[in-house]
Amino acid sequence: MLRAVCRVEHTAYARAVRIIAVTNAKGGVGKTTTAVNLAYLCAEGGRRTLLWDLDAQGGATYTLRGEPQQDATAKKLLAGKRELSELIFATSYPGLDLLPADFSYRNFAVHLAARRHPVERLLKMSRSLREIYDVLFLDAPAGISLLSENVLRAADVVIAPVVPTPLSMRMLVQLNEFIAAEGWADLAMLPFFSMVDRRRALHQEIIASLRAQFPQMLRTEVPYWSEIERMSVRRAPLPAVAPRSEAALIYRSLWEEIGERTGDRPRAPGRPHPPQPSGTHASA
Q1: Rounded to an integer, what is the distance from CA 52 to the centroid of its chain?
Q2: Is residue 169 a part of any domain in this protein?
Q3: What are the CB-based long-range contacts (under 8 Å, 24+) for 231-235?
Q4: How many domains does the chain have?
Q5: What is the pLDDT along the chain (284 residues), one digit of tens a residue?
Q6: First to last CA, the chain
Q7: I need a labelling partner for 203 at 20 to 30 A (CA). Which of 14, 85, 233, 277 fits?
């Protein structure tokens, strides 16, 4: 379980920027794909948007064709020897910037543990970005660590992709229990089903069970389609390269629904909501 190092009020630091974390302790659930597509749609809607790739594997950095910055180690960031604003990479998409990942982020939790009030570090570090951006996306690595705890502490909204499997179901339960134990009642937890194949009886059973257990589950389901998997080959957000495709419309629907749930409707013109997938596009 996540370690509670210190307990503070979640709203301790007033800020104008909205922080959206895309996270799941289980890997391979479509987390980075979600972060990149939603950040793009946020910027497309007219908001100054920054995506911080906190995963040492750098999936979001690769997809957005970012370039790692020199001497941008987790240790130097936490020690204040490098400022986040110095490391911003401008993507080719208007309004969307990137804080590239660094391989040293694999030791982020170790360096966090050496600091005072370690659970608050990411929240404090975001202060320098408040005058620059409207929305900050955090693409968090898989796993349970002090870094993932920091991500939850900093966030206003948590977007959690959940594959309809027993292990993903268990992780969602644990995440909800941790947030409740910390008393972060103002943290908007918005899970949704990812990599769905409704041809599978197990997927249908788990979806029905989790929707009954977690009424906050978003309606939109992201299917297990090869078109979505190929996003890492194209190295571009789906709504940018194929805006009229079914896959792009599904992510647009997801982003619109998040806006409805948080009371922050996207500024981009609405698009028709695509029908929920049957799984016929799934790759073998």
Answers
A1: 10
A2: no
A3: 231/33, 231/36, 231/37, 231/63, 232/33, 232/59, 232/62, 232/63, 235/62, 235/63, 235/64, 235/65
A4: 1
A5: 333 322 233 333 344 579 999 988 778 888 999 999 999 999 999 999 999 998 988 899 999 999 877 778 888 877 777 888 888 999 999 999 999 988 877 877 777 777 776 677 777 888 888 789 999 999 988 877 888 888 888 899 999 999 999 988 888 888 888 888 888 888 999 999 999 999 999 999 999 999 999 999 999 999 999 899 899 899 999 999 999 999 999 999 999 999 999 887 544 433 344 444 444 443 32
A6: 34
A7: 233
Domain assignment present for 281: no
52: left (phi over 0), alpha (psi -120 to 50) or beta: beta
Asked if residues 210 and 162 have their Cβ atoms less than 8 Å apart, the reply is: yes
Would you say residue 179 lies in a domain? no
Q: How far is Cα 189 from Cα 213, in angstroms, rounded to an integer? A: 14
Q: Is residue 222 part of a domain?
A: no
Range of the domain at 123: 18-155+228-259
171 and 143 Cβ atoms separated by less than 8 Å: no
Total-model pTM: 0.84
Q: Tokens standing for 227?
A: 């078109």
Q: What is the CATH number of the domain that holds 126?
A: 3.40.50.300
